[in-house]
Amino acid sequence: MDIVGIETFLSVIQNRTLTQASVQMHVSQSTVSKRLRILEEQLGIKLIIRNKGVSQIELTEKGEGFIPIAEQWMRIWRETQQLSSGSEPDFLQIGAVDSISNYVLIPAYKALYEASPPIHFQVRIQRSIELYNLVDMKEIDVGFAFLQIHRPNVKVEPYFSEPMVVIRLSQPGLKNGTVVDPLSLDPAYELYYDHGPVYQLWHDRFWDLRRRPRASFHTCLSILNMLYDRRQWSIMPLSFARSANVTGDYLINILDDTYVRTCFKLTHQYPRRSAEKSLQLFEQYVTQFRPILE
């Protein structure tokens, strides 16, 4: 498959028009069209619907499905070029769930960024099950997830554990650290964050599992931005709650029957040889900055 055709296809879907793609690639529009036709012939599928008089392109169903393949192909080609040049510094692929990456691992990222000689790294935000798949396929070198799943090629180690707490806007007469009964919280004002199936079972012990949450979010920060009413509340990991409350605008309460979540570190049983040194260094930083949450 021609890498020029892949690059052209990605430019077209990014710009949505052949004209803008040709400008970005510094070639004529006819050249862009020719490259796309050659790519379609090589693949044996039609990627783009060509409508006369319509400036914006429209992808076929197979064209939509080809996007992630094209992106992966382009990434592999770039890595191959870097490998062949022999000049690329160590490169580490890291994956983590949102709350761990943004509120626990930042000190380790900063230390890795300052390492000498330099280590290049990429951080990917994924769900726990996706992290297992990525480590298994060696698309990432290390992952941090909340599920413990058996995979023959994935080494799973507990990293740290932390309690879940209630976070809401500061309120007169209430202090941080006060213990609250989960049943005292009005479910009508819950901002729900899905922490996984085990957490869901714990949650269902206190609140009607048949009740659909009024608002659900996939990131902790979204919930924080939605807290504007003192009646609202959300159950969040302690690491996030402490990070959010540096300004003192929020109230953190402890649940008298709380859920404790464990973060697991995932690595491949046979890591990439080219990433071994950078992985060992990052694991040192991860251990050094392991959170102590009580």
What does this structure look like?
This protein is an alpha/beta fold and 294 residues long. The protein folds into 3 domains: 83 residues, Arc Repressor Mutant, subunit A (Orthogonal Bundle); 95 residues, Periplasmic binding protein-like II (D-Maltodextrin-Binding Protein, domain 2); 100 residues, 3-Layer(aba) Sandwich (D-Maltodextrin-Binding Protein, domain 2), CATH 3.40.190.10. It contains 11 helices and 12 strands. Strands 3, 4, 5, 6, 7, 10, 11 and 12 form an 8-stranded mixed β-sheet that branches. It is globular. The model has no long low-confidence stretch (mean pLDDT 88). It comes from Anaerosporomusa subterranea. Belongs to the LysR transcriptional regulatory family. One of its GO terms (cellular component) is protein-DNA complex. GO terms for molecular function: DNA binding; DNA-binding transcription factor activity.
CATH evolutionary superfamily of the largest domain: Periplasmic binding protein-like II
**What share of residues is helical?**
40-55%
Q: Main sheet, how many strands, which sense, barrel?
A: 8 strands, mixed
- The gross shape turns out to be globular
Mean pLDDT: 88
Question: Whole-Å distance between the termini?
Answer: 55 Å
CATH architecture of the largest domain: 3-Layer(aba) Sandwich
Q: Class by helix and strand content?
A: alpha/beta
Total helices: the number is 11
Q: What's the structural domain tally?
A: 3
Order of helices and strands: HHHEEHEHHEHEEEEHEHEHEEH
The CATH class of the largest domain turns out to be: Alpha Beta
pLDDT below 50 for ≥5 consecutive residues: which ranges? none
Number of strands: 12
Rounded to the nearest angstrom, the radius of gyration is 24 Å
